[in-house]
Write a structure and sequence with these properties.
The structure is a single chain. This protein is of the alpha/beta class. It folds into 2 domains: about 180 residues, Rossmann fold (3-Layer(aba) Sandwich), CATH 3.40.50; about 140 residues, N-(1-d-carboxylethyl)-l-norvaline Dehydrogenase, domain 2, CATH 1.10.1040. It has 16 helices and 10 strands. It is globular and about 60 Å long.
Amino acid sequence: MQGIAVLGSGAWGTTLACGLAHKGLPVTLWEYQPERAAAMQRDRENATFLPGITLPAGVTVTAHLPSAVSGAAVVIFVAPSQRMRANAAQAAAFISPAASVISCSKGLELGTLARMTEILRAELPPGPRERLAALSGPNLAREIAEGKPAASVVASADPATARLMQDLFASQRLRVYSTDDVVGVELGGTLKNVIAIAIGGADGLGFGDNTKATLMTRGLAEIVRLAVAEGANPMTLAGLAGLGDLIATCSSPLSRNYSLGRELAATRRSLADVLGARHSVAEGVVTARAAVAMAARHGIEMPIAQALCAFFDGADAHALVAALMQRDARPERDALAG
């Protein structure tokens, strides 16, 4: 296989680049800030997002997008959701017509409410847009970078692309499954970030495991309702990209979204203050607002997501919890019930 381009040098992009280089593949990792790219190339470490993990010799870090992308057999997009369209538009002119492309980002674009593969399909040239996939699952970057066993799932409407990406990312420590349910995989990985912030908030307020289990279960119901309305297979949400990712993100201090919710509730600082002190992006903040807008488009209730948006806007957390607890009672028989 020819070279691999990884566009995005956060913790996850760096982890993916390292994993592929460990398989003997030549990888170019794009970091848009020249000074940071030079430091990573020189020091062989991403000191900002993944300190302590040595970059293998097979990873070349550059800030020059054309040289990162040109000639690559596979282009991996790992951009924050609100920068995906700009990055894709910049890279499109340099991507080989024979290249395959995969999104390893989780989020929805505000305004358009587009998933990441929808953005890529709109911005990329004809060949690569037909060989398009998404990767998601319970994949906390540091654990995978440290070689701890995990699993993920690749989704593509094209069976050959799904198989290519499955083989590309699979290793002795990362088991990769495949599916054709791109909508389910993307929305499962995206929407669980909203629930992770809520569960972090519950911990920050001093609530217990019963509260977390309730939020996780009813949060999964919200995820399934919206994903199915968008065309997902509900069984996908019972798999790695849904329940699996939800469990990992809602229970680990390594989760940016969980830790954000916990800090917000425990310190009672404003969202702007907390986000301003962080290097990494917690996608659940933007996703909560996008998910509520998407749910409104379908006439679907998402009470946890709606409460979280109100919390971001300054509403009292205890009052929001009380309102959730006092919603009209109904049968649980169907997990998709509102």
